[in-house]
Write a structure and sequence with these properties.
Strand content of chain B: under 5%
Structural class of chain B: mainly alpha
Oligomer: heterodimer
Distance between the termini of chain B: 52 Å
Helix content of chain A: 55-70%
Largest sheet of chain A: none
Low-confidence stretches of chain B: 287-294
Order of helices and strands of chain B: HHHHEEHHHHHHH
Mean pLDDT of chain B: 87
Number of domains of chain B: 1
Structural class of chain A: mainly alpha
Radius of gyration of chain A: 21 Å
Number of domains of chain A: 1
Number of strands of chain A: 0
Low-confidence stretches of chain A: none
Radius of gyration of chain B: 19 Å
Chain lengths: 331, 294
């Protein structure tokens, strides 16, 4: 248990919390089943990478090929990552969210995720193909020494600031009248439309906001890892985040945070422990980890679909009793 | 021109493979309302069943039958043990998509430690070459095409001329009304899972036979092409899926000849996106993927 290990854990937790909060805005609050969520995280990571790296003609970087290479100073790559996520959300959202039924949206996004990975994997000149990018500069690395423990604390601090910002934004959206509109759309799209709400505009907005947050999470992750490749953003990674949200509690920001700590972070640690104990053949534990995540999703959807921390029931002052509403509804 | 003639020949084989997969997928969706994202994984599982039979020295054509039986049993159990209980519980369409994706993930990772990471291929002699003008095909490829045509005719006959087919169409159109008319919809749905599961298993073996080698992750690619063909033709429409398979099969092979074989699935995806933008209901369906009321 050294500082690096603890820092690693905290930074991963921060990135996962940001990602699950974004997914909560999309899936939990607005009902958009974004099965290509990880693609937006990847877009942010790649954008942050090429914004901070020197051109690929530079001596140390000549073993890889990529577009861009602008060597921009610290906050810009992270902002650029968020922007990349948002920009990518526009065309994808325009194709998927306008006309299709919601279950079609889900499969269209799933297929998008698989294909995006195939394209980046095979198109080497764009982002170095399957080998991915390496030697990605860390934030502020020309101002401070990145090898000491103090840099880890700095990175944890930066991540924590982003977590705080994202949480604040998510809480504002969820608790605002706008959030109420989103929930209305999720519960009954036709009724919301009849009351003059534009579901396509609402969904597009949340798709773009969620895309930006996902992009930011990718930028934070890549600044810490300094490498990024197609194998890090295969579509099952999105399913982990869905599992986190389903376990934690859809539509509840606290639930999203709890889920992020339980599922991605918790599973990662348990796997690490089991691998160290050398049980069974290699690769058995990681494979079983995925099976366990699938079981978690099925188990929660069956026994407790509302998650560990259910979405609070929101009632306005002077509203009829919950029991009365239920009786009327079932009558 | 001969490269395109050759590609046209491959296109014929490719569309035969896709047609079997897509018709099974689209019938599952049309009749049971289930977008089964585990379809590709059931395909690849069946391909592995045939692989182990083939490795024991038995011809792949026997393995193919075994694969079809395995696919039927697997799909039937999947529905009985997982999908149907969730549907009865009132899980939404969206919830069912998540369930099937979780199931798909579990199948792939349960299979992984059993079959391993390395790509495998069937050991089957490709047979002698048959020439039709510029098109050159192996005996195996001709057999695949013939098999696919026979399966399509069989599905056509099933849907048009049998009581079961009529019951299936009635269940697809309106399950409640069908039940009220005395159609045992539960048994019909069981039969649908058995039949489409057999198509799925058969398609898996045929697809694996048609590709040089396969691994677990090939399942995702199988799913994408089947999905593209099914959506292109209008989801839930078996005849639409056949037309979709013809178009996707030809276009992907011609593009592979003109451009690069690595992007076959990307081309299929491009067609999928075009359909979703221009004609979300697909070629044949009246409503299909368009948002249904409520």
């Amino acid at each position: 248990m050294n500082t690096y290990y603890a820092a690693n854990l905290l930074i991963y937790a921060g990135v996962d919390i940001i990602a699950v909060l974004a997914l909560n805005l999309q899936f939990g609050v607005s009902g958009i089943v974004n099965f290509s969520f990880i693609v937006f995280q990847a877009a942010g990571a790649y954008a942050a990478a090429v914004l901070s790296m020197p051109p690929h003609t530079a001596a140390e970087y000549s073993f890889q090929v990529y577009v861009g290479g602008y060597q921009l100073p610290f906050p810009i790559p992270w902002i650029g990552g968020a922007l990349a996520g948002a920009l990518l959300a526009i065309p994808v959202g325009l194709v998927v969210l306008r006309k299709l039924r919601s279950d079609y949206q889900a499969i269209a996004l799933l297929v998008t995720s698989i294909i995006a990975n195939t394209v980046i994997n095979n198109a080497r000149p764009f982002l170095n193909g399957a080998a991915g990018l390496a030697l990605i500069p860390q934030p502020l690395q020309d101002q401070v020494d990145t090898y000491g423990d103090s840099y880890l604390y700095l990175y944890i601090g930066l991540t924590a600031v982003c977590v705080g910002l994202v949480w604040f934004l998510a809480a504002r959206i969820v608790n605002s009248p706008y959030g109420r509109t989103l929930r209305a759309m999720r519960e009954h799209e036709l009724a919301a439309t009849a009351l003059g709400k534009n579901p396509v505009a609402l969904k597009m907005t949340m798709f773009i906001v969620g895309g930006a947050i996902a992009g930011l999470s990718g930028a934070i992750l890549v600044g810490f890892l300094t490498v990024w490749a197609p194998s890090t953003w295969l579509y099952p990674e999105t399913i982990i985040l869905f599992a986190a949200l389903i376990v934690g509690g859809r539509g509840n920001n606290l639930g999203a945070i709890l889920g992020a700590l339980l599922v991605p972070v918790g599973f990662e640690e348990v796997t690490r422990l089991l691998i160290r104990m050398n049980i069974g053949p290699p690769n058995l534990i990681p494979a079983l980890e995925w099976v366990a995540i699938g079981l978690f999703i099925l188990g929660f959807l069956w026994f407790r679909p509302e998650g560990v921390r259910p979405e609070p029931r929101r009632v306005f002052e002077g509203s009829p009793d919950v029991e009365v509403v239920d009786r009327v509804r079932t009558a | 021109m001969s490269i395109f003639a050759a590609a046209f020949g491959f296109g014929l084989v490719s569309m035969s493979v896709i047609a079997i997969a897509a018709v099974g997928f689209t019938m599952q969706f049309g009749i049971t309302n289930m977008i089964n994202l585990a379809y590709g994984q059931v395909m690849i599982s069946s391909a592995y069943v045939a692989y182990y039979i083939n490795r024991a020295g038995i011809t792949i054509w026997v393995g193919m039958i075994a694969g079809a039986f395995f696919g039927a049993a697997f799909s039937f159990l999947l529905n009985r043990l997982v999908y149907a209980p969730f549907q009865r519980k009132g899980t939404s369409y969206l919830g069912m998509v998540i369930v099937s994706l979780a199931v798909s993930l579990m199948i792939a990772n349960l299979l992984l430690p059993i079959v391993g990471y390395f790509s495998v291929s069937y050991s089957e002699h490709a047979g002698s070459l048959v020439r039709l003008g510029d098109i050159v095909l192996t005996n195996n490829q001709i057999a695949i095409i013939a098999l696919s045509v026979a399966v399509m005719l069989g599905i056509h006959a099933l849907l048009r001329y049998t009581r079961l087919g009529k019951a299936m169409r009635a269940t697809a159109a309106n399950p409640t009304l069908a039940r009220n008319c005395g159609i045992p919809t539960q048994r019909v749905i069981d039969m649908v899972w058995l039949i489409t599961g057999a198509l799925c298993g058969l398609a898996g073996v045929v697809a694996a036979l048609n590709s040089d080698s396969f691994v677990i992750s090939s399942g995702a690619g199988f799913l994408i092409t089947a999905l593209a063909a099914a959506v292109l033709g209008g989801a839930g429409q078996p005849y639409g899926a056949m037309i979709g398979a013809v178009i996707i099969g030809l276009v992907t092979e011609l593009s592979a000849a003109a451009w690069s074989p690595e992007y076959k699935e990307v081309v299929a995806f491009g067609i999928l996106v075009l359909v979703m933008v221009l004609r979300p209901q697909g070629l044949l369906a009246k409503r299909g993927a368009l948002a249904a009321a409520g």
